Amino acid sequence: MFFSRLRTSGICPVLIFAAATMATGQSLPPAPHTPDLLGIYTGMPMNVARMTLQKHSTKYPVQNDAAPEVGFSLTISDPQAREVVNVYLTKAPNESTVWLIEKSQNFSPQTPMSVTALITALREKYGKETLTEDRGGGGLYLFWLFDQNGRLLASAGRTLTGCGTGITVSYMVNYMRSGALPVPNEDERRCYISFFAVTAGLNRKTNPELLEAYNVKLVNLPYAFRAATVTANANNAVAEKARQEQMKKANKNKPDF
Hints:
Elements: H1 13-24, H2 46-54, E1 63-64, E2 71-76, E3 81-89, E4 98-107, H3 115-126, E5 131-136, E6 139-145, H4 161-165, H5 168-178, H6 186-194, E7 196-203, E8 213-220, H7 221-252
Antiparallel strand pairs: 1-2, 2-3, 3-4, 4-8, 5-6, 6-7, 7-8
Helix pairs in contact: 1-7, 5-7, 6-7
């Protein structure tokens, strides 16, 4: 099963699966429809996700990313509680589907939100969090980890907390944007095999009971890694074909002596 941590001759099973998918021309297997964030789930087709996000506001329109194939966003410019939602997409030759949804809000003293109110809302939506990590300085992080069928895990290895609050998700955003995918290191492989999660980062610098801001992500890194591998392999094949054509021309361009 994909969720397994087994290795075969030192090769990550995700890499084996992604390579097989590319070779057979198969599309990505469907992702579960739960969990969701604002009604958007990972694996949701781009057009459906865009319409779903627009339902969140009648005043502000959904905007494309600078590269529309990468994603889109919604910004609610309320000076008392500014809200931003970003949705990130898989790229061709995959179908354009969601792999990451991110919602953040900032609060003014006139419209405060308590830590209790946010955590209560998250638990009502997703259940009791799998892991919690207080990193000091007012930063509190909560993790709801799921198996690949979308079932909440009661426990998980604490090393997985680095997948959501570290650079792994940011790296994947850049990989999707560039269409390139370097060979992952061991920490990244662990994330790419297992990290399907809702994460919440709470900023409570000035008051431990009140929020200055929060950030909630729904991310399916195994799904994203499979898609990114397909994209990178396709781009590499195009580049190799162009190189071979260039060499054919170069070999025919013989000088006279």
